[in-house]
C-alpha cells in the first residue's frame, strides 16, 4: 500500500499485517528537490501498534483518496487522459479507436452463435441478423469503453457506470455471459483484497480451496439433477433416469436407449472431455499469437509445446472422469448395499469431481461455481411449491433485470479498480479493457500513477 503526501511527495510503504497487537513498520521515502533541480531522497522508518486490520485499511484508503484529490486539484483532462493531444483530437481518436476496439472485443460473442447456424449461411436473414447485432454491440460499447475517459468526477467509477447504461442495447446472451464474468472478476478482487484469516487460507492453501470448490461442486450437481436443466458445466446430469428405476446406471436416458456398460460409457465421456480440454488449451494459446501462424509457424509450435496448459486439460478431464466413475459405482446394481437416489449420487459425484480443482487452482475457476450455485439455488427455491413466495420475491424474479444490473455495476467497478488497484484485478480484465479501449486504459493507468508519484 502506497501513501503519498501532496506537498513533499513523501511515499510511505506500509507492510501488511493480519493480527492484532503486532507492530507495523512504515518505511518513508522523502523526495525533495534541491537548488540544482535534482531530487534528493532520504529514508526514515518507525513502528506503530497494529490494532485493527479494518481500521488500518480504511484509514490508509481514506488518506490515499485525500492525497489524490489534492494532487489532482489543478490537473486537467489533458494531463490525465490525453497528454499528447488536444480535446478535439482526443475525441476523434477515441471515436475510431473505440470502434476498432468494439469490433475486436465483441467479435467472439457474435461469431459463436453464427457458427452453430453453419447450415443456414445461405439465408440472407442470418447474415442480416449477424451484422445488425454486431453493429449494435459496437455502438452500445462506445459509451462503456469511453465512459472512463470522458469526465473526471469520482475518477473512473461514475463515468463507467453512466456508460454501462447502454447495456440494454446488447443481445441478452452477451449481457448474461459477460455480466456473470465481470461479477466473477469482482469476486476475485474481493478475495485478493480480503484480510481475514479464512480468505488468506483460500489464497495460500490449495487443500482448503479445493475443499471449498468440492462443496460448491456438490451443491451444483445436486441442484442440476433436481432441476433437470441443461446448462454449461464441466459434467452433465442425466435427468431421464427416474428415482423408481434404481437398478440402472444414471447415464441411461430412457427405455428406448441401447444399454451401454459403465466402462464404455466412462471411456466415451472421458474421451469427449479430453478433446474439449485439448481444444480449449490450444485456442487459449493460439488466439493471442495468431500472427505467428503466417510469420513463424515453427515458433508457434515451440510456444505451444512450452506453454501448453496441462493443468486446465487435467482439470477438465479429471472432473468428468471422477464424476462418471462415482455415479456408476454408487448405483444399486454396482453396490447392492447402497441406497442412493439420483440426487444423492450427483451430490457425491460432484464433491469427488470437485477435488480435480487441485490440478488447476485459479481465481476465475474458483469464483465461477459461486455464482452458478447461487443462481441454481434461486431456481430451486422458485420451483419448489412447498416454499412460500412473497410478492416481493416474485417481483424480483419476474421484473428485475439482474444480468443488466450486474453488467452495469461490475463494469464501472472493474474499470475503476483496474486503474486504482491494478495488482488485485484479474490480468484477463487488463487485456479486455486494453482491447476494448485500444490501449487507452494503459495510458490512463500510467497517468494516474505518474501524477500520484509526483512525476507530472
Description of the molecule:
Strand 2 (11-14) and strand 3 form a beta hairpin. A 4-stranded antiparallel beta sheet has the order 1-2-3-4, with helices on one face. The chain has 18 helices and 4 strands. The chain has 3 domains: 2-71, no CATH class; 79-195 and 405-453, no CATH class; 210-222 and 233-360, no CATH class. The chain has helices spanning 53-71, 77-80, 87-115, 124-146, 157-163, 172-193, 197-204, 206-227, 262-286, 292-295, 297-307, 310-329, 342-354, 363-383, 391-399, 402-420, 427-437, 440-453; strands at 2-4, 11-14, 22-33, 39-50. Mean pLDDT is 74; it is low at 1-31, 43-64, 147-154 and 242-248. It comes from Anopheles atroparvus.
Question: What can be said about this structure in brief?
Answer:
This protein is α+β, with helices and mostly antiparallel strands. The protein is built from 18 helices and 4 strands.
Features:
single chain; 456 residues; alpha+beta; 3 domains; 4-stranded antiparallel β-sheet; 18 helices; 62% helix; disordered N terminus
